[in-house]
Amino acid sequence: MADLKPNHSYLLMSNHFSFLDGVFATYIWIYGLDKATPIKGFYAMSLKQQLLKNKWLMWLGSFSIEPDSRSMVESLNYAAELLSTPGNAFLFYPQGELESQHVRNILLKKGFTKILSKVACDCQLLWTSNIIEYFESTKPTINMHMLDCGTNKDFNFEDVQQKIDKHHQESIQKHIRFTKEA
Hints:
With 182 residues, the protein is an alpha/beta fold. It has 5 helices and 6 strands. The protein has helices at 21-32, 48-53, 71-83, 111-116, 157-173; strands at 9-14, 41-47, 62-65, 88-92, 123-133, 141-151. It has a 6-stranded mixed beta sheet, with helices on both faces. The longest helix is centred in the last third of the chain and has 17 residues, at 157-173. The termini are far apart.
């Protein structure tokens, strides 16, 4: 799915459309990332209210963030600290809220730019657009489309925003069936 750059940390970003997004990200971590580059630790940021409701998330490496609070800066600094260790992977949903998987434009919030500016090592930025479809089946199929967004050293918010938006639209387009009309 993705070629990991050696001696980097990894910021895995994804569209956020379901409570199960963390499960999907774990699947990517276990099965989809290049096994030649071992990942030392896998971490995620969850809204404080979700972490209080689902304490088991902490066992999976999740820690809290409370937007628009004083502790938000501490959470962002902690994420940067984790990403400053090569081999660590950090899951982040830069949309900042749940949205439909079929939303046409992914609008990123700039919180992760504060994280990246403080990362002390090379960090690879990865995006995955996750799309669930049923078609003829009663069981859903999840399609995960990875995009390498570069590193924190060549990071430009507007460029990454455009790449992700275009990639997500193309991912959705791959799952649209057009039927022939009579």
